[in-house]
């Protein structure tokens, strides 16, 4: 048996007792936001390839952290249906500006865990007037099927014990705590709404308990 040895020269089993999520590689990743290191992981349980971007030397406590749920349409295409793309860019910029931090990019989280095609089908129903919660339910799909266990294991592997979590979603905080990562602070990640996403954002606030106080200032968004 050969054991996989990462570029840091350590055996995966020496880094974490929870070896179902294995660190496979670390590589420098220069970005428009600053210099990051990309940590690549393989989740043996689900078969997902995961990546965490680390800037600077975050340490163990109070690490500025974003758990970003994969959103192809928002992150890559600049979709204004949701605010994911702007949230990802803002999180990377804030981590770089802070001098250190972590952005965990969670694969398998499309459409709050219903997959890319499920999300596109839900978007088609939203174009017909359903809200994001009703659309998932109309398709017989869960409203939120995301699991944050892998994110906690990645943070554990990185030596992070407590985070300042960039999120408006109280369920992310609760999930991390449940998986053994402390949340010292929840840092709002508020993106100014646009005409295309104001209804979606209001639904997230009213039906999914997201903290989005900045929506109060937006009575009507005109084009
Ligand atoms: Zn999105």
From TrEMBL:
It holds the Pfam family GTP_cyclohydro2. Pathway: Cofactor biosynthesis; riboflavin biosynthesis; 5-amino-6-(D-ribitylamino)uracil from GTP: step 1/4. Zn(2+) binds at residues 71, 82, 84. Its cofactor is Zn(2+). GO terms for molecular function: GTP cyclohydrolase II activity. GTP binds at residues 66-70, 87, 110-112, 132, 167, 172. Residues 23-188 form the GTP cyclohydrolase II domain. It is an enzyme of class 3 (hydrolase). Its EC number is 3.5.4.25. The active site is at residues 144, 146. It comes from the Bacteria. It catalyses: GTP + 4 H2O = 2,5-diamino-6-hydroxy-4-(5-phosphoribosylamino)-pyrimidine + formate + 2 phosphate + 3 H(+). Keywords: GTP-binding, Hydrolase, Metal-binding, Nucleotide-binding, Riboflavin biosynthesis, Zinc. Binds 1 zinc ion per subunit. Catalyzes the conversion of GTP to 2,5-diamino-6-ribosylamino-4(3H)-pyrimidinone 5'-phosphate (DARP), formate and pyrophosphate. NCBIfam families: PRK00393.1 (NF001591), ribA (TIGR00505). PANTHER family: 3,4-DIHYDROXY-2-BUTANONE 4-PHOSPHATE SYNTHASE (PTHR21327:SF18), GTP CYCLOHYDROLASE II-RELATED (PTHR21327). HAMAP family: RibA. This is GTP cyclohydrolase-2. It comes from Streptomyces olivaceus.
């Amino acid at each position: 048996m050969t054991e996989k040895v990462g570029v840091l020269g350590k055996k995966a089993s020496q880094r974490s007792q929870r070896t179902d999520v294995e660190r496979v590689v670390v590589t420098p990743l220069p970005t428009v936001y600053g210099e990051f290191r990309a940590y690549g992981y393989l989740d043996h349980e689900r078969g997902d390839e995961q990546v965490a971007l680390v800037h600077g030397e975050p340490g163990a406590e109070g690490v500025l952290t974003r758990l970003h749920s994969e959103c192809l349409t928002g992150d890559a295409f600049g979709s204004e249906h949701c605010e994911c793309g702007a949230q990802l860019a803002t999180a990377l910029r804030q981590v770089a500006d802070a001098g250190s931090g972590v952005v965990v990019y969670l694969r398998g989280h499309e459409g709050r865990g219903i997959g890319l095609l499920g999300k596109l089908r839900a978007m088609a129903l939203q174009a017909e007037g359903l809200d994001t919660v009703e659309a998932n339910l109309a398709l017989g799909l869960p409203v939120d099927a995301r699991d944050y266990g892998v994110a906690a294991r990645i943070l554990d592997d990185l030596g992070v014990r407590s985070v300042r979590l960039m999120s408006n979603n109280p369920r992310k905080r609760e999930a991390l705590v449940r998986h053994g990562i402390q949340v010292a602070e929840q840092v709002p990640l508020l993106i100014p709404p646009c005409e295309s996403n104001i209804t979606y954002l209001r639904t997230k606030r009213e039906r999914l308990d997201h903290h989005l106080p900045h929506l109060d200032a937006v009575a009507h968004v005109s084009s």
